[in-house]
Design goal:
The protein contains three helices and six strands. It is α+β, with helices and mostly antiparallel strands. The strands form two sheets. A three-stranded antiparallel sheet has the order 1-2-3, with no helix packed on it. Strands 4-5-6 form a three-stranded mixed sheet, with helices on one face. It is globular and about 55 Å long. The mean pLDDT is about 95.
C-alpha cells in the first residue's frame, strides 16, 4: 500500500493520492495557516473508521440475505491531550440503515465489524473506547 502526498499551496493544504489514483484533500485550521479546504488528519481517522465499518456491515448483511437500500454513518470522537499530541479517548459510530432489515442481523453485523473485522477500529481501540448505535428506517 502506498499513498503519495503533495503540498498544494504555500501553507498546509495537501492532496493525497493512492495507487489507484483516487484523491483526497487535507488541510489545517486557519490558526496554523490552513484554509479549511480539506479534511484534517484526525477527521480522516474518524472517516476511515466509519467507512471501514460500513463496508464490513454491508458485506456481512448481504451474506445474510439482508440488502440495505442505504446506509449512513455518523462518527463522533472525543480527544484528550497527551504530552505534545492528542488522541481519541472515545469514538461513537451511529449507523442509519434503510430497508427491510432484521434488527438482530443488523446488530450482529455491527458488532462483528467493530470487534473482529474493521482494521481501523481495531487500531483505534488501543486508545479509545468505541461504542455504536443504530437505527433502521423501514421500507416495504
Amino acid at each position: 500500500m502506498k499513498i503519495t502526498i503533495q503540498r498544494l499551496n504555500d501553507a498546509v493544504h495537501m492532496e493525497a493520492v493512492n495507487e489507484s489514483g483516487a484523491t483526497l484533500q487535507m488541510d489545517g485550521t486557519e490558526e496554523i495557516g490552513g484554509i479549511n479546504a480539506g479534511f484534517r488528519p484526525m477527521q480522516m481517522l474518524l472517516a476511515a473508521a466509519g467507512g471501514c465499518s460500513a463496508i464490513d456491515v454491508i458485506s456481512i448483511l448481504k451474506k445474510q440475505r439482508q440488502n440495505p437500500d442505504d446506509i449512513k454513518i455518523e462518527v463522533t470522537g472525543n480527544r484528550v491531550n497527551v504530552d505534545t499530541y492528542s488522541e481519541f479517548k472515545s469514538i461513537h459510530i451511529h449507523f442509519t440503515l434503510t430497508g427491510s432489515l432484521d434488527d438482530n442481523k443488523v446488530s450482529r453485523a455491527i458488532e462483528l465489524s467493530l470487534t473482529k473485522y474493521c482494521s481501523v477500529s481495531k487500531m483505534l481501540e488501543k486508545t479509545a473506547t468505541i461504542t455504536s448505535s443504530y437505527d433502521i428506517v423501514r421500507t416495504e
